[in-house]
Protein: Subtilisin-like protease
Amino acid sequence: MKLPICSTLLLLLLLTLSITYSKAQAQQPKKTYIIHMDKSSMPAAFSDHLTWFDSSLKSASPSAEILYTYKHVAHGFSTRLTPQEAHALANKPGILSVTPELKYTLHTTRTPQFLGLSKSTTLLPASAQQSHVIIGILDTGVWPEHRSLHDASLGPVPASWKGHCETGDNMNSTHCNKKLIGARFFSRGYEAALGPIDSKTESKSARDDDGHGTHTLTTAAGSVVPEASLFGLASGTARGMATQARVAAYKVCWLGGCFTSDIAAGIDRAIEDGVDVLSMSIGGSLMEYYRDIIAIGSFTAMSRGILVSTSAGNGGPSPGTLSNVAPWITTVGAGTIDRDFPAYITLGTGKTFAGASLYSGKPLSDSPLPVVYAGNASKSSVGYLCLQDSLIREKVSGKIVICERGGSPRVEKGLAVKLAGGAGMILVNNEAFGEELVSDAHLLPAASLGQKSSEVLKSYVFSSPNPTAKIAFRGTELDVQPSPVVAAFSSRGPNALTPKILKPDLIAPGVNILAGWTGAVGPTGLTVDQRHVSFNIISGTSMSCPHVSGLAAILKGAHPQWSPAAIRSALMTTAYSSYKNGETIHDVATGQPATPFDYGAGHVDPVAALDPGLVYDANVDDYLTFFCALNYTSFQIKLATRRDIACDPKKVYRVEDFNYPSFAVPFETASGIGGGSDAAKTVKYSRVLTNVGAPGTYKASVVSSGSPKVKIVVEPQELRFAELYEKKGYTVSFTSTSMPSGTTSFARVEWTDGKHRVGSPIAFSWT
Ligand SMILES: *[C@@H]1O[C@H](CO)[C@@H](O)[C@H](O)[C@H]1NC(C)=O
Ligand SMILES: *[C@@H]1O[C@H](CO)[C@@H](O)[C@H](O)[C@H]1NC(C)=O
Ligand SMILES: *[C@@H]1O[C@H](CO)[C@@H](O)[C@H](O)[C@H]1NC(C)=O
Structure:
């Protein structure tokens, strides 16, 4: 909800700039560019790459300075150039590409926002090997004094570790310990774009002034802390997923955003330092793999055996809203858990609705208060959104105000109502948010309400001469069912970039998550919020991503020899997509069963993932073949992978045969209007399974949901594995009859030896 405002501001800023400059006819302003160089074409005259970079740069712009040099993510550097200089540089020898920097965002539903939750994940056996695993978190930094970062049960830092704790504002090497083993910051791109950091408002160091970074880091690998809660809510023992793993913070996101030159530098350094898992709850818009810095950086990371876990984005519930879809990345969507923070809203008629809230201050009076719809108490045409300064004091004073979601952070709406003299707030959902109940630590008594109850509430308020209501807060409720349900905000497939790869890969807890918080700001993140909390409850795919990063660290500890693809496969093929009663996991946005476009392979099940039986493995060569199947040129492949590859023009490369643990099968309805042929269309996908368990015979089974629209045949039906790491291939053919464009259908293929169930979702779509 924050995004549209930001981009509007940005647009205004750009417009203002362009007017000024066209008036002055001045040289265009400089921007940050990331330059990829062709390592192999360095002239022999240069003794090292840095002098070559510098000489190339100076030939196009005598005054330009290098911001960062990159070693792993790209062979190259970033710098500030005018568009003319960038153009000139792009034509110099040895330059592969000159790409303008982009701004990325954190994947919380909105930055200063809170929801409420705890997690129900089974405690896993702590493995001594886990303490050799290092998780790097690219985010807003870390609050190093946090209780969750104690290192009481940990041995010495792994000898292979090359990172350290950088000195900066309020932070130096004494702030790291055997849990937090590294903390670095990358601000050159940010400062080049927005000016020097003001140490009064923001620490120029890895210290977290926002809270997001401390939250994701402690979710992935926080130590065990008893008696954690937010104002007594969600109370209990707080712990990250991999309590024995080590963490390193790479601060690349600042109060003004995350810039790609800094992100690239962070990934580069994390690879150099020796992380095993890289967690990035960050994303930008979807673009070709060879242009996307997260995809490019992750490719190098993957090729070094580092598992990269990212958030799917908070663009749901609309279809095709994913970011971070590269097949060498693990893409994580968000679901709810079984904990709620109920608040009951009782109308003057006596009717009561269940809502949710993390409000913890003085309760409202027991007698009913007048209720007003914000849209009826504002001069603004969007008064119902309760934006700042939009409410008429005389109309809201002493009343409970009904505000609609959207347009501004939820806690900011609460503040707007409070400042206008309102007594309380009911935050109502429209259709897009459905029945999703987000809980917030509001500054005034407030609760959120699902769409159906919201409609009833509003029609009561619109039709009654003197409408009244009460709000009662009921703390924490456990064992809420059904759970998980897919969060409305969680970004959805289909994959707009590569439709034959299903994304997201899986879902994990991302709604109302309790984890560590910064000491710099209160739980709402609002400047007026003077409260201090060590734990906060927030939501987003930003929160689900570090759950999977931590679980991947557990798997890496248990199976150090597994590749990133094998670890992801284990997490995916053991994920569940139905409740114990057999019903498919629900989508909170619709109240209907969700689909693999929403949850991928399903909800993560870490205990099952430790022993998956079989995995779909993939190595660097498989990914290079994938690029050939996309018809990338050698040049594009080089940009994405830094490798010189020529695809064999005589060979047939197919995305259908890329060894992914799930299936996305788009059918064309080209026959279309008029006399299209009704002849059945068959497509064939092939896969290879690797045995990571005991010898055994696995049998295939196929389950279609609803009425089958596609005939599915697995060949062979049985695979016998005699040895560990033995590989066996199979094919699946899908035969479809004509379907109208826009149709979707789903199925599942499962291999089982009686003990393990190796499941893959299949998503059909007709375009
Ligand atoms: C590191 O920071 C701590 C706490 O802020 C301070 O007491 C200490 O003197 C600093 N150490 C160094 C070497 O700067
Ligand atoms: C209040 O707002 C609603 C929705 O915009 C509208 O239907 C209704 O007529 C308004 N009521 C008054 C009294 O203005
Ligand atoms: C790549 O090119 C081949 C041959 O022209 C074509 O059949 C195939 O659909 C293309 N693949 C993609 C992903 O565009």
Remarks:
- Residues 630-631 surround 2-acetamido-2-deoxy-beta-D-glucopyranose (ligand 3) (CB under 6 Å).
- Residues 135 and 247 are 5 Å apart (CA to CA).
- Confidence is low (pLDDT under 50) at residues 1-25, 108-126, 672-677.
